Fold this protein.
Amino acid sequence: MSGPGARSHQAAGAVSADEPWTILRMILWSADYLQGKGIDSGRLDAEHLLAHVVGVNRLQLYLDFERPLGREELDGFRPLLKRRAAREPLQYIIGRHPFRELDLVVEPGVLIPRPETEVLVGQVLEWIERAGREAPTALDVGAGSGAICLSLASEGYFTHITATDISEDALRLARRNRDAAGLIEKVDLRLGSLFEPLDDGASFDVIVSNPPYVAEVDAASLEPEVRDWEPRAALFAGQDGLDVIRPLIGEARGYLKDGGLLALEVGADQPRRVAELMRESGGYEEIRIVRDYSGRERFVLAHAG
């Protein structure tokens, strides 16, 4: 196998042209190649791709570094590496992504679940455990792949969860993940914007959402993997990023039981403004901001007053 990066490794004395393509050699070459394309996580991504092709856990590659790769493995790996070099997200290439206790199918056209959103789920689970509510229910606005609603259904005490999304592609994928997780009876997925698909008189103990919140003016600052590959409708929300959050806050109170929880993930520069919107609405109390794994303010939680 030849291509960008091979010469740099040979010049460094790492390999010679006639050596077999072992697992280690392929990882080193591919890491250099991807880093040359501007991908800082080149080695990690190369390991994930190769593990996917070989059919083992990524860490298992370390136990077999010196094994030569077969022709079918090389032929299977090469196009995946080219896709990653074109900045297609790793998750779309592999087709799966872990989220808390779930192993989700992910596909182009549907937002890739973020690690930060695991914190949002954790906050909801902690609250519902403390609340002691009888037969609690939840609403997930913007189901996407199903990461939030399925995690709440599989880990929490909820008797039923409803999730809405405007994307038919997202709901199709969420149904696939729901069915694989054995949660068909517990999670109801509905097509429509915000609260539009709900039945008259519907009310919930928890409303949770990771809505679109990126400002249009910030598009150029996003990584190519996000800007060029993930669905715009799941990312952008007007000039200030609040076009979805405003009506969500305004309407959510009418669907929350008294004392119920509204939990939102927002942009890193938005929590204080979102908290102010909640205060201005007059329907919420005990408003608080929670930080994500990296210490950035990321989530806004409030109770129906």
About this structure: Residues 53 and 75 are 10 Å apart (CA to CA).
